[in-house]
Known about the structure:
The complex is a heterotrimer of chains A (300), B (309) and C (241).
Chain A: H1 25-38, H2 41-66, H3 72-75, H4 78-86, H5 90-100, H6 105-110, H7 112-118, H8 123-157, H9 159-166, H10 168-193, H11 198-222, H12 228-235, H13 239-251, H14 258-263, H15 270-291
Helix pairs in contact in A: 1-8, 2-4, 2-5, 2-8, 4-13, 5-8, 5-10, 5-11, 8-9, 8-10, 10-11, 10-13, 10-15, 11-12, 13-15
Chain B: E1 2-11, E2 14-24, E3 27-32, H1 39-46, E4 54-59, H2 68-71, E5 74-77, H3 89-99, H4 104-117, H5 133-145, E6 151-155, H6 163-178, E7 182-186, H7 190-196, E8 199-204, E9 207-213, H8 214-219, E10 226-231, H9 235-243, E11 248-253, E12 260-265, H10 268-282, E13 288-290, H11 296-305
Parallel strand pairs in B: 3-7, 3-8, 5-6, 6-7
Antiparallel strand pairs in B: 1-2, 1-4, 8-9, 10-12, 10-13, 11-12
Chain C: H1 3-13, H2 15-27, H3 30-55, H4 60-64, H5 68-72, H6 78-109, H7 118-121, H8 124-142, H9 146-160, H10 173-180, H11 193-200, H12 207-231
Helix pairs in contact in C: 1-3, 1-6, 2-3, 2-6, 3-6, 3-8, 3-9, 6-8, 6-12, 8-9, 8-10, 8-12, 10-12
Amino acid sequence: MSQQAPIADLSYRNYDGPKTLKTARWWVITLSGLRVSFKKKGLWIMFGVSSLSYLFMLFMMFTQSFTQGMGDDMLGGFREQLVGTYSNAFWPLMIALLVGSGSIAADNRANALQVYLAKPLSKRDYLIGKWLYIFMIIFAVYFLPLLVVVLYRAFDAGFVDFIRSDGRVFAVLPLLAGLPAALHASVLVGISAWNKTPWIVGVIYAGVYFFSSIFALVLSSAIDSTSAVTDSTLQHLSIEGVISGVAQNLLGAAPGGIARALSQSTVPAATPLLLIAAVLIIGGILAARARIRAVEVVQG
Amino acid sequence: MIFLERASRWYGQVIGLNDVSCSFGPGITALLGQNGAGKSTMLKLITGQLRPTTGSLTVFGDAPFSNPNVYKRIGYCPETDSFYEDMTGRQFVNLMARMAGVPNDAVDGVVTRTLDTVGMLDRCDKKIAGFSKGMRQRIKFAQALAHDPDILILDEPLNGLDPVGRRDLQNLLKQLADAGKTIVISSHILHEVEQMTRHIVLLHKGRLLALGDVGEIRSLIDKHPHRVRVEMEGARPFARKLMAMPNVLSVTFDRHNPNLVEIETAEPDVFYTEVSDLVLSEGIEFSAFTSPDTKLESVFGYLVKGGAS
Amino acid sequence: MRPRKVITMVVCGLMGPFFGALAKYASGSSAAAFGLAMPLAVFSFTLIILSVVFAAGIVSSEMVGKTISYLLTRPIPRYKMLLAKWLGATLVVAIATSLSAILTTVAIYGLDIGSSPLFGVLWLVPVGAVAYCSLFTLMSVLSTKPWLFAVTFGFLWETWVPLLPGDLKMLSLMAQIRALGPEGSFSSAPSGLAEALSRLNQNEIPAATAWNTLAIITLLSLVISCVVFTVGEYVPKDEAQ
């Protein structure tokens, strides 16, 4: 026990207590990212807008329960409706851009990497920390409304009946939220690490995202396939398509609603979509890992 | 040239500048204050980037906000270390000079001269992204100077400069001030500001705390006795004579140097006259006779912190 | 122009030719490939993304980079500075997108571009560039994150609003631009819900209405931008005190 002086020394002095972090070191970075993101009003506004489609779905389920299955042909069953609503991926993308585009780029601009990496934090801690906060936010953006809708349906239909007919939905919920979260987080940290300007990161990712959608559309329109599965798979060869296509495989249902009634959607093949997702996730993380360094080398 | 009349600036609920009236004329004026005192706000008001919330501010008789006529005569060196990083130093100064109205046929010569003046001519053709902090400061200063403005507004221009760079900049500013330019310089480095000017504007928490010559300001501070240091052989017998003077409040000997004595007086003017008479009549010789109180740092300390720093 | 922007311009500009070649290879029909690649890749992607990159950052990138204080203390009226930047952005977008449109046609038709519908739609590129750059300049003047609004407008609004029933499609700039082109030149191939909605909406926008609407949106955007930029205070946030 240290000896206490008669008069307490209240002057400023550096912290000289134990320095072993109680929690994982990357958690410090994650927490910091979450705090900064939660202060952004845009995040909450977009989360609200993003959840509107689930609210609409709740309303439709509520009215359907009074109409004794009328409109089921049009809207499809619960899983068809769920995958249709889930496939509206624009607002989660915008949330990802808002919270993730500056994740590393802003640190590059402010030379903050020098500060971070001069602490007892490794490059891996830094990258995991940055990746995880984007992942957690996007995961929550998908997971929370999905959970509300699924729980409503379970209680509305009778819990036991629901487990029998649609029980797999509960099991795949974390995957439904986790896949887009991992995709967005990985690609964003990958692009962000190579830039110094957050808005440029946002525009690049938006460009890649919509470019891939147009690519899939052009490809599926141009190739005259006789197989419905092949045609559907071609339509899903984009970031948006991968998210929706994997979800269709997980839920075992194609999107319901007007689209289903008119275009007879078929569940796409899972393998190529999973391959694309894996390439994007691993590629993004590797790209970020290759670029993160404390000292900026200037040329010219 | 620059007049502020009860100028205030609010940022929502926070006040940046509070009811300040003052003016700036030819010569160097140091704008002093702690962080958040309102220095940058005042400079942004003068350079027309912000408008006063209440009160008025004029530069050459015009409100500066969004006013090209005023900007023609102002050179502004911002505090932030921001540039178009992909440009070379020369390209940046050239662009700024053109935008400031330097004619196309003269701009190359003007830019070369200015870069030479700030000591960057030999290094200006590299990208700004690779510049050191000191080189960036010099380029920032060059772009403010290129169009030969009547008023120079310099926000922390000494930051990041090495001692030689600081001395060069101080000399250059003195030359410009002698040529009749109005120079407003904000800085935290008090002793270096002191080498350039005795004229200060002191802000504290958004309010104007003091304005004018450092010595005059000091003499008006009654709360703190004026301190004088004398170094001489036989300091104790001299101190005995000083004790007889009614305006002397205390005499303190230095613990480590027996020849050094510090005197506190309530009436410095009377004290200086009486000491002069004493020295002449008794043939006393001093090694040193200084007043630490008239140093800018002491005045700053008395006014801002309530005691000498 | 910054190197990264040049790279972005080149990459985006090459999307059209890439899609054109892909569509031609897959479908074998030049007309079908042109009908797919031109509206989707050149107009709905390259034109919009380049407008976002070059126009949405006109003011906000200076704010983010904190270089705005250099610009605002120059003896140039602010509206002139803004219009000069807008003009520069519009020219870059128009030239790059036009080149992309020409290369796309070459990728589909080879060097025999005289037999393609290119010249029927090429003149729409500068019209689109003027309209989009004006609107995105306004966003840049009004917001510190204009790219979020511009991306939302360019890729969400402009995808779905042209498909809405009745006169609601008039709220889309792309619908107005397409209305100016020769009939059938924008025979894109929407699928799913988009196809369903487009079937429901057969209303055509008259050319005169499209001209008027585009002119009004452009002028209004520029006038509001100039006024706001002239009277507004633009000081980066962490410098504000």
